[in-house]
Amino acid sequence: MNQTESRDVDDAGFDVLSFIADFRRYILLFGIIFIAVFALILVPLVTQPPKYTASASVMIDPRSVNATPGEAVVSDLPADTATIDTEVEILKSSALAERVMTDLKLEQDPEFNPYIGERKKFLGFIGSDGPAKTAATADETDARRQVIINKILKQVAIKRQGATRVINIRFTSLSPAKATNIADAWARLYLVQQREARMSTTRDASNWLDSRLTELRSQVETAERAVQQYKIANNLMSSQGATLTEQEISNLNTQMASVRLDEAAAAARLATARRQLATGSSGDDVGEALNSGVVHSLRTQSAEVSRKVAELESRYGPRHPEILKAKREKEDIDKQIRDEISRIISNLEAQVQVQRQRRSALDQSVNETRGTLAGNNRAQVRLDELERDAMAARTIYNSYLERFKETSSQEGNNRADARIVATAKRPTTPSEPRIPLAIALAFCGALGAATTVVMSRRALDRTITTSGEVELHLAQPYLAGLPLLNTSLDKAAARMDPSQYLIEKPLSVFAEGFRSLKTSLIYGRSGERAQVIAVTSALPGEGKTTASICLAQVIAMAGQSVVVVDCDLRRKSLNKFIGHKVEQGLLEVLAGMATIDDVVVDGPGGKVKLLPLAQDTDTTKDVFGSLVMDYLIHRLRRRYDIVILDTAPVLPVVDTRVLARKADVVAMLVRWRKTPREAARSALQILIDSQAPLSGVALSQIDVHKQAKYAYGEGAFYYEEYKDYYMQ
Question: What membrane topology was assigned to this protein in its record (predicted)?
């Protein structure tokens, strides 16, 4: 690709010139599609009844006023983008639309309910002027209800206002009052829905907490019952923070200490008394005796009797009966004192013994109680575990109970997370139809549709149109463009013979095409001048025989001798240019039955020589691959300046593959906008595989007027500019 071409192709590989050429090529198709689609889009848009749009606004309000103690069951909405976008989607929901429909009875409005015109009852609220034909099933009822909801949703537009927390609710209706009412109702019912959602959530939380409290209460009772039963079973009953066993052992220790003191005191008193008696004391000085009231009374009596005895002795003699009586009385008292002291000593011994027995009994009780306490301590481990479980259950129960009280107090204190910041104003001018927008939409739609059709038509076009396509799709040099005669002259001259027209109009555009072909073929090969030219095509009907005759006529008009050899054994196309029946021809020459002079005839104008095929002769022999054919071509070279071989089509006939190698150059004709690219490529590949000296491709039967539309950027594009240069 050269620099000029590279400038016409953008970075994405888009060929601007090709696009312009395609646009010009299909301009009529483009115009028809554009006008049709433009009308189809614009007419319904501009003829629809006027509609009015009302707008209300709500704002997501993150501020909260909590009049009740404790944390709210449902937290306030955060004011982030995701949350606000979520609320926008909630405003667009079918549930809210259904609530609006029910609140405003929109199901009874023909604007939203397309079934009102039917003579049947629908959903129990649409009446008719006649009895219902058939009761709607539940599925039909739900389906129709959803149709109404969808129609309502189509007429509402919910959009967040920029990056704010404000959400606009726009509703479009045939009536301005209806649009206002529905927009306001949409905002109002959105807040109601929020409050109901909060209340429902709080109520559900309260119900769940209540049921949970019942379970926890049962768990607490079970845990505490297990603690008490375990205490009873393991004798772990307590009072004032200590178990009864601990209290008992404490009391026993206290008693033991007291008994030990009492025993020590009694033993000390007994030992003292015994020491005093052992030193010769009569026991009067024993501490217990001194403290005894009986001993004290007897001693008082003894002293009184002693005084009496002393008094009597002073008056009477020692043997006086009164004195003897008093002495016996004194002895009796002293004996009582001694007996009493003996009893005291014996009592001290008894007290010591009692204290020892008490200490022994207390020791046994302490040992037994300590054994019980050891067992209690082992059982205390399990008791502690049970008490911890009971305490944990009680703690959880108390926390749930507190939360239940807080939640219950919040049931009637729920507020919405949004507030209405602007109510809808009644519109005074219709919002639809918007004529400028309708025109723009129609234009864009028509442009897109027309462009799509043109590009689809272009994609389906598999023919060759321009020289650029020859080089692009066939990878061969472009030789020339051969016009279709009736497109290059007036209608009256369209019936002329092409070769005769060349003679009469040698400076016409028709003649110029063949002169270009002659130049490309004869002088195209570097350093060599072609003498034998083979003209072929991929398929029949591509004008190769006419092209061969016209090419020969142009060469003859230049003063060179030229002969056209008919090599199409099946069609014998040259015969139509001869005014009589051909009796002998090429096959007879090859068979030695005739000479060249016998079969060569004059062509149109008398300057071109034709070597035809006899009309009534056929052969199945490979005549073109024989040495005789080589010799014939050699002889023709010596006799004529130029030899043109009018061969058969490449694809259906194999003869051309053999004959093409005998020519100096081979020109393949491709019919303009007719021959498929694939067929042309297949024929070219056959020639290349046959090692034919392929010179290039020429487009035949070109409509020069239409070509100007297709060949943008090429010479043919400017045909209208230079057509007057040629003689018609």
Answer: Multi-pass membrane protein
